[in-house]
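Lab notes, practical 5.
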Amino acid sequence: LKRVRDYAEVKGSGKITAEIANEALERLAVDEMGLDHTDRNLLSTIIEKFNGGPVGLSTLSAATAEETDTIEDVYEPYLIQIGFLERTPKGRKATPAAYAHLGISGTKESLFKD
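Output from the prediction step:
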């Protein structure tokens, strides 16, 4: 929201309209589910590098170059809330909804059984 406000200040009259909001979100690469580049990168890393998971937080952090605290406190809560990520005792797993949203066909068979 803060970035949309900043965009409205620079590109518009300072007033946030639907048009300004849509332009700002498009420029920021925020999709229709509210995911930005980092959200999509976390999910695609779990899917593509770790066969959908489970993957531990430290491993995911190293694979994405994001701090563990940032993943856990900033990105994970929303991804879990919208049903794109599950946190299991063995690690994080991408859900079928995450695959669908990213346009990746079917869930891959995990190397580990739950």
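Observations recorded by the TA: The chain has six helices and two strands. The CA atoms of residues 4 and 22 lie 9 Å apart.
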